Structures are given as structure tokens and as C-alpha cells.
Amino acid sequence: MPTVERVARTEVPRVRVVLASDGAPEEHLAFVSDKRIAHLPYVLSAPLGMAYGVAKLPYAVLIDEEGRVAAQGLVNTREHLESLFEAQRHGVASIQEYLEKRSQ
Questions:
Q1: Any idea what DSSP says for residue 93?
Q2: d(CA 99, CA 54)
Q3: CA dist., res. 89 & res. 83, Å (int)
Q4: How do 42-44 and 59-63 pair as beta strands?
């Protein structure tokens, strides 16, 4: 969460952070309060995760200016999140895809 907070503060207006999850609303209200993130949009929606093929959390999806998925992947660390921005910069969905293309 600290990295997400930093991105929300420092990348704006280039990046708009929207948090999403599913489950019992009470649990998420407590999470938002505990993490002090009420200032960030927070969506509860199982169909949203299914639409993006999210199998494990935490997961991030970068959507470009045209509304297309620019990069996505599991984000357990700051490095994972930064790798999504790098993937977007290289025009690939993930750094793994970039490395595969580069080795060919």
C-alpha cells in the first residue's frame, strides 16, 4: 500500500489509482479505515476481477489513455508494480513478455 500511495501522490495526473476487490463490504470498510485510504476510489466487484482475468491478489492493471490494458500482473512488491510501468513503456503486457520477445 505505501507504494500505491506514492504512485497516487506523485504520478497524478498521469496515473489515477483505483483500488478494487471483492468480498464482504464490512471487511473492506475496515481495511480502508485501517490503511487510511478513504481518499482513493475503492470498488467492490467480483465481475471486475473476472473481466481482467485476476486469479490472485494483489494484482494491478494499467489502462492507457485509450482505455486499453497496457500492462498487468501480480504486484506483491514495489518492484512488481514498477515492472508494470516498465512493461507499459516498452509496449508489452509484462516484463516477461518483453524478455521473451528480446530473446527471440
A1: S
A2: 22
A3: 10
A4: unpaired
Contact 84, 61 (CB under 8 A): no
Which residue range(s) make up the domain with 98? 53-104
- CA-CA-CA-CA torsion for 40, 44, 48, 54, nearest 10 degrees? 90
Q: Which three cell numbers mark 45?
A: 466487484
pTM to 2 decimal places: 0.76
Same domain, 62 and 103: yes
For residue range 47-101, what is the model confidence (pLDDT) as tens digits? Answer: 999 998 898 889 999 888 888 888 888 898 888 888 888 888 888 877 777 777 7
Q: Are 50 and 28 a contacting pair, CB within 8 Å?
A: no
State whether 1 and 45 are in the same domain: yes
How many structural domains does the chain have? 2
Question: Model confidence over 49-60: pLDDT tens digits?
Answer: 999 889 888 999
